[in-house]
Amino acid sequence: MKQTDPGVRIIGVEPEWENDAYQSFHRGYRVTLPTTSTSIADAVRVQTLGELTYPIICRFVDDMVTVSEADIASATLMAALETHLLLEPAGALGLAAALTYMQLLSRNKPVVALASGGNTTLENLHHLQMKKEMLRDV
Question: Which range of residues forms the domain containing residue 43?
Answer without folding.
Answer: 11-136
